[in-house]
Amino acid sequence: MKNTLRAIPFIRFVIPLCLGIIMGDMFPWAYSIHIALFFLLPLVSSFFFSKRKTTFLFGLATSFFLFIFGHAVVQLHEERNQDDFFATYLGDEKNEIIGVLNSMPSPGETIRATLKVEAIKHEGKWKKASGSLAFNVKEDTLSQFLEYGDRLILSSWINPTKGATNPKAFNYGKFLHYQNIHHSTYANGKNWKLLEKDQGHSFFKISYGLRKKAISILKKHLHSPNEFAVGSALLLGYKDEITEDVQLAYSGTGAMHVLAVSGLHVGILFGIIQIFFSFFKTKDRKLKSVQLILSLAVIWGFAVLTGASPSVLRASTMFSFLVIGNFLERNNNIYNTLAASAFFLLLIDPYLLFHPGFQLSYLAVVGIVFFHGWIKKSWYVENKIGQYIWNLICVSLAAQITTLPISLMYFDQFPTYFILSGLVVIPAAGLVMYLGLLLLLMEMVIPAIASFIGIVLYWIIWTMNSMIFLLENLPFSLIEHIHYPLTDTLLSYFLVGLVMTWLVKDNKKILWGALITILLIFSIRSIRKITKKENHEIVFYHTKGQLIDYFHQGKRITFKSDDLSDKQERNAAKNYRTFSHTYSENPEEDFYYKNGSFLEVGDKRFYFLNEDYYDLLSSHRLKVDGLILQNNIFVNFEVLSTEFDFDFIIADGSNKRSKIEFFKKKCDNNDIPFHQTPYIINLK
């Protein structure tokens, strides 16, 4: 075991670093100084004793140092800890800011980009400032021409980013936090003005320029929308034109990773490089140096071509370490190389640790490296075509073993035909990359040949899309609503670790430990599901239209307005329904009574004020538990109690923020309990 650890020293470095980063995201900066001083004492004192006596102490102290170092790296990276962070100068009214667009704007009804703040006006004077801002602007004749590197002056309200809008829903605020963005603004044509162009970093200007040119070439040869959307996403990472149908089809069949340029795509390039140089095996150091330089140039040239997105930069760094490791040939261990690349990336950006793409990339590679050989040797196939197919299946299974737990935690679903989709998209992705890169080259050299390549490329993508849509429509193609929390995920990876150890050590005690862990996982999940089925609650979601769920005895009844789309309902309620282990509606009417604006559900009664409630036919006060204020309705709080006998008021998401604040103030003045959506009433 000791020899194994010596072969992978960076594993021992990256684990305490990751733990320090996690703690650094949870606890403030000041604590790390005192803790660092405390744990540095044994590190320093160990040098005064013999090596034999202090090997363990030195290793322990080094781990603690890396733990504290990881904690400190987070605080140094966190933009809010900078002395000139722009938010320290924000006022209550509109704020004037000068900044440069630091990302390529995403098109749509709302154009989205990141603004790198340079200065902010404070007390009538411009002050130098730092930090990043999520810049959202309404699309118009001016904003549609915004580009990376544009310097703008902005006069708008700047707000802190918000967390999840609904219970268990996607936390957009946390997503932005891990991109080191903590404030956002929404502007229209009157709120901003272009000052200068081409003010971004020259590397990214070149990258975005090449990508823009490549996109125009693909659009010329891939005529239909779906084929262009998939081709440009697969080859260049350009996903702005992928439709919801295509996205659902690829995610539902386990093939979504092929549309995000990352480890798979750089891995294909790495494979091409390895195959090409295998024909020129040499021990000459100079020639090997040339191969190293060419390999790195191809990998990073592809990164530039795809717009240098964070995912492709991560993958390029990881495979660069692998290329350099192969070049050095000094007891090269791929696990150590992977750990070294992760260590390096986390020093640059510690928040990468919390990105699903970062986690999935490394877990997939580890799974393929470790499990591929074990699975492949379990069945020998003589036919070469069969060997190729079996090898692809082995790769898919190996990657799935190490990525499944975290995929379930993030996405709550499992594509049952992931092996079939892998047999389709992995070879197709390789062909699309080979032909796509050749197409871009030939378009500049021999356009006639480029036209022929474009036709072939189109039909390959069309075939791949057709196969994915076919798989999506097969029965039981997707298992949805899988609630897999962090505890289950950690136990699952403990189980994977035990299985890996058992395969190497072949120890029965380890196997027994794995079986006990499986029993523990199933027991916890069963208890949780039984407990959740006892839930009896009403959930008011925060949406522009009405959306209410009533959970009772493992069943669900949903009340929603006609103007609420299926997508809006899914975004608001899907995660909480999954968390509640309740997915299907119960049509039984014994649980509720609804008549116009009146709703009785469980033992609670509600009235929705979304129109002139003075038209009530009842001549006496209506007894309800709660009044639901909707659509910015005018409410005369002085006479409200004469119309209704109620206990509390709820304002839903159809009201403007200013109106909700008005409602809250009025309720406080009249001693009326006030709530705003999302709001959950527990009926136990």
Describe the structure.
The protein is of the alpha+beta class and 684 residues long. It is 54% helix and 15% strand. It contains 21 helices and 22 strands. β15 (598-601) and β16 form a beta hairpin. α8 (244-252) packs across α16, α13 runs antiparallel to α14 (384-411) and α14 crosses α15 (418-445). The model has no long low-confidence stretch (mean pLDDT 84).
User: In whole angstroms, how far apart are the ends?
Assistant: 54 Å
Helix content: 40-55%
Oligomeric nature of the chains: single chain
Rg from alpha-carbon coordinates: 29 Å
Largest sheet: 8 strands, mixed
The number of helical segments is 21
Instruction: Give the beta-strand count.
Output: 22
The secondary-structure class comes to alpha+beta
Q: Could you provide a short overview of the structure?
A:
The protein is α+β, with helices and mostly antiparallel strands and 684 residues long. The chain has 21 helices and 22 strands.
What topology emerges from the helices and strands here?
Blueprint: H1 2-7, H2 9-26, H3 29-45, H4 51-77, E1 95-101, E2 110-122, E3 125-128, E4 132-138, E5 151-156, E6 159-160, H5 172-177, E7 183-187, E8 192-196, H6 202-221, H7 225-236, H8 244-252, H9 263-278, H10 285-305, H11 310-328, H12 334-348, H13 356-376, H14 384-411, E9 414-415, H15 418-445, H16 447-472, E10 478-479, H17 486-505, H18 508-533, E11 536-540, E12 547-552, E13 555-560, H19 566-579, E14 592-595, E15 598-601, E16 604-609, E17 622-623, E18 626-629, H20 637-643, E19 644-645, E20 648-651, H21 657-669, E21 674-676, E22 679-682
Parallel strand pairs: 4-7, 16-18, 17-19, 18-20, 20-21
Antiparallel strand pairs: 1-2, 1-5, 2-3, 2-4, 5-8, 6-7, 9-10, 11-12, 11-22, 12-13, 14-15, 15-16
